[in-house]
Design goal:
seven-stranded antiparallel β-sheet, five-stranded antiparallel β-sheet, about 850 residues, 23 helices, single chain
């Protein structure tokens, strides 16, 4: 009966009790085993560890391999999608150019010669575009232009009719649907690679007028649209909807090998996507081989396995060798660690002296404080290494008192020198060292580092002095008073100079600035706010106001906030800063800005003087002609009443026209204060166009405009906004003149449309020209003051334009217009918010009265 019970105890862990520590339970089970069984289990543990290690290595190899395959697949997918996007954008650019030609054909803007010229430019500039053909409504080719590399059997000859092939079927489909389509003919054995066809309808004002057919080389499209690094790393091919290869060379299938590998051989990865807007009839397919690591992987696997076996054998031998030594050391280490832990846990430095003043013991904290090791300190006599040389006499006297037992219980302060030469302050406490038999064997000293506490006390004193000096030297008045009390808790020098040492000035600033400083009535003269939570008040942001103090003759910016005073009372701090010079500077800047606006308008009209004179000369000449005609008929006696009435009506009409021109110029250039009112964008555009059209007609520039319907009104100064529009239109005309554009390309377009900016509804005004654009060095300094690209320019026009727009809470910018890589013009645009949105921005700063201005 005893033997089975013993066996059960050694092999089966005891039943754990509820709430027991699991580690304690396993320790109890381990101690219940016999030493022999403990040795067997301990010997088996390293083998299990190594086996688990080998399994982890195998799993790690498999995981890394799978992750590498997935990473390569993702990289291939990103590269393919990037190449597909490049091809798509390139096709869309050519599609837009072809559709633009079709649109010009539909409106009759170009003929056969111009079509051939433009086709030649496109085919020469873009290698993928091979043939551009104009087909009439009956499928007959009017004209065609092809690249020199196109085979003769693929050429389109003028006068012939489209054959019964994919091109004819696509033409018929475009004719029925009036929509642009792509067609990819099938690959035929023995024939040249087919060309991708794009048909764009030529739709006039009434009906279908034919198509413009563009044919693209798939091979050139792949070569020029696919990044070179992708072509170098992958095998890229383009296939049609039936899987036939149109361009590129695919990878050959890998040869099968009979060699056995632990890690599977990598297979070729591929990914394919259709090319939009063509669709599934043109597919981009990319193949790539992953680098094989099978031999390296196998070698690393077997190396790790061999090292694991060797580690298991070494662990078993080492464990058997050290088992006995560990048991003998456990008891000694436990006792030593306990005593050492007690010593090292102390933060106070401990030092023991014998009766003769020799150091017999120091703890770790004492060594850490002084930087000297225990071996360097034990056995030393006075003077000790940590004594400061300048304090030898004082320290010798203290040591003499210590050895004679004359030290007090409060200790004394000393300066201690570290091993690196630095010094720190410490407080030393002395007590007799009594052994177990009750005899005194020496003296025990405890040392505490008081450097930080002493530094904090010194800093507090210095901080108080600095605080007082800074507040006294401030150029702002600072005062603190409890709410509703006549007591002044603090006032700096400037406050005392302005208001004296009474609370009158503090209360005056609070009252005039409109800051809350009231107190509820209470009995027995107690604080009415006592007991209320003050966190929400003292944590709140300060209130600001600008006031004018007549007694001082100064404008003051008053800031106030609540704070808890040192005695717990809720107090109010008021800071008043003299801003008289700033207010005067702001008023002067406003006057100078208005003068600059007026000067800019005068400069603009001066530059347009010749155009205005020409415009006025027409009605004046007409008036002169009508007057001369009536005089001649009066002298000859042939003037009838109807003729005189007709001539006088024409003369009055021309005089009225001249007066309107002069009135518009006068209202534009006259000086006036800014007057923001609700105004519609259409009204400002009409007024600006009346003046700008004069300049544009003189420069032979076509000025068009578009104003979106139902645009809400904006809160703006109409004259200033018209000034911005006229300056931008005039600059656009000058840019076209400098670019020397032909008459067909001399146009300026003004567009006004609603647009949201940063969540605010507004209106965008844009002026687009066909000039030579803005160089990069000019764009960087475009809106700088006194910067101009004109020889006679003053450089204030665009700077003032931006200032006007920003004064309306708007934004102004400029950008070049491109046709491919060619700059074909420039667009200046500015945005101002609608009246409702602008009121939200104006609410941040509003005037309270003529002498007070609040700020957010």
């Amino acid at each position: 009966m005893d033997t089975p019970q013993k066996k059960n105890t050694e092999t089966t862990p005891p039943t754990p009790f509820t709430g027991a520590d699991p580690t304690r339970w396993w320790r109890m089970w381990w101690r219940s085993l016999s030493p022999t069984r403990q040795d067997r289990l301990a010997a088996f543990a390293p083998l299990v560890s190594v086996a688990l290690f080998m399994a982890a290595i195998v799993v790690a190899f498999w995981y890394l391999r799978a992750e590498e395959v997935d990473r390569d697949q993702q990289a291939l997918k990103r590269d393919v999608e990037y190449a597909q996007q490049r091809m798509r954008l390139r096709l869309l650019e050519r599609q837009e150019q072809v559709m633009r030609i079709a649109r010009d054909l539909a409106y009759g803007d170009i003929g056969t010669a111009e079509f051939v010229n433009r086709a030649e430019v496109l085919v020469t500039q873009y290698p993928e575009l091979q043939i551009l053909t104009w087909v009439d409504r009956d499928g007959r080719i009017i004209t065609s232009y092809a690249a020199p590399t196109v085979p003769s059997e693929q050429l389109r000859m003028p006068g012939e009719t489209l054959k019964n092939d994919e091109a004819a079927q696509s033409f018929q489909l475009v004719k029925e649907s009036n929509q642009s389509i792509y067609t990819q003919p099938r690959v035929l054995v023995g024939y040249p690679p087919p060309l991708l066809q794009f048909h764009s309808p030529v739709i006039g004002t009434r009906n279908f007028g034919g198509t413009v057919m563009a044919e693209f080389s798939i091979d050139s499209l792949m070569r020029y649209a696919t990044p070179s690094d992708l072509l170098a790393r992958y095998a890229v091919t383009l296939t049609d909807g039936h899987g036939a290869i149109i361009a590129g060379t695919p990878l050959t299938a890998p040869r099968q090998s009979n060699t056995w590998h632990v890690v599977p051989q990598p297979q070729a990865t591929e990914y394919q996507v259709p090319i939009s807007p063509v669709g599934s009839s043109l597919v981009l397919k990319v193949q790539a081989y992953r680098t094989s690591l099978s031999m390296v992987g196998n070698g690393m696997f077997w190396l790790v396995a061999a090292l694991s076996l060797l580690t298991a054998w070494l662990l078993m031998g080492t464990w058997r060798h050290t088992r006995k030594r560990l048991r003998a050391q456990d008891a000694l280490i436990a006792e030593t660690n306990f005593r050492r832990a007690m010593e090292n846990s102390l933060l106070t430095g401990m030092r023991a002296l014998d009766m003769n003043g020799r150091i017999t013991y120091v703890n770790a904290a004492f060594c850490q404080m002084t930087g000297w090791s225990e071996q360097e300190l034990v056995g030393q006599t006075a003077p000790y290494p940590y004594w400061a040389e300048s304090d030898y006499e004082y320290l010798h006297s203290k040591l003499k008192d210590e050895l004679s037992g004359k030290t007090g219980q409060n200790g004394f302060q000393v300066r201690v020198r570290r091993k690196n030469g630095s010094m720190f302050d410490a407080r030393l406490y002395i007590s007799p060292l009594i052994d177990a038999r009750g005899h005194q064997t020496g003296w025990m000293s405890s040392m505490t580092d008081i450097t930080e506490s002493k530094r904090i006390r010194d800093q507090l004193a210095a901080s108080h002095d600095r605080f007082t000096i800074v507040l006294e030297a401030l150029d702002a008045s600072v005062s603190v008073a409890p709410l509703g009390s006549a007591e002044l808790l603090f006032a700096n020098k400037l406050y005392r100079q302005w208001f004296g040492s009474q609370t009158t000035g503090h209360l005056q600033l609070v009252q005039q600035a409109g800051l809350p400083a009231e107190r509820s009535e209470s009995v027995d003269d107690e604080d009415g706010l006592m007991g209320l939570p003050t966190d929400s008040l003292t944590d709140a942001s300060s209130n600001n106001a600008e006031i004018y103090v007549g007694e001082l003759g100064k404008w003051l910016e008053v800031r106030s906030r609540y704070l808890s005073w040192v005695d717990g009372r809720l107090a109010q701090m008021v800071i008043a800063t003299d801003i008289t010079q700033r207010r005067l500077a702001e008023e002067q800047a406003a006057r100078q800005t208005e003068q600059a606006h007026s000067a800019s308008r005068l400069i603009t009209m001066g530059e347009m003087a010749s155009s205005v004179a020409h415009e006025l000369n027409q009605p004046l000449t007409a008036i002169s002609n009508y007057s001369s005609g009536m005089l001649s008929r009066l002298e000859s006696g042939t003037l009838t009443e109807e003729q005189m009435k007709f001539a006088l009506e024409k003369t009055a009409h021309q005089a009225q026209r001249a007066g309107q021109i002069i009135q518009r110029i006068r209202s534009f250039v006259k000086r006036s204060e800014p007057n923001r009112t609700l105004v519609h964008a259409q009204e400002m555009v009409d007024e600006a166009l009346e003046l700008a059209n004069i300049e544009m007609r003189r420069r032979n520039v076509r000025l068009t405009h578009f104003v979106a319907a139902r645009i809400p009104p904006v809160m703006a100064d109409a004259i200033l906004i018209e000034q911005v529009l006229i300056n931008l239109i005039k600059n656009a005309g000058e840019s076209i003149d400098q670019a020397q554009r032909p008459p067909a390309q001399r146009s300026v377009e003004l567009r006004v449309q609603p647009k949201d900016n940063e969540g605010l509804a507004g209106v965008e005004f844009s002026v687009k020209d066909s000039g030579k654009g803005l160089p990069p060095e000019v764009q960087e300094r475009l809106f700088e003051a006194f910067f101009s690209t004109k020889n006679e320019g003053m450089g204030i026009g665009l700077n003032l334009c931006r200032s006007i727009v920003e004064s309306h809470h708007g934004r102004m910018s400029a950008e070049n217009l491109y046709n491919g890589s060619e700059v074909v013009g420039c667009r200046f645009f500015f945005w101002i918010p609608l009246a409702a949105a602008q009121e939200k921005g104006d609410n941040f700063s509003s005037a309270i009265n003529p002498n007070t201005r609040k700020s957010a």
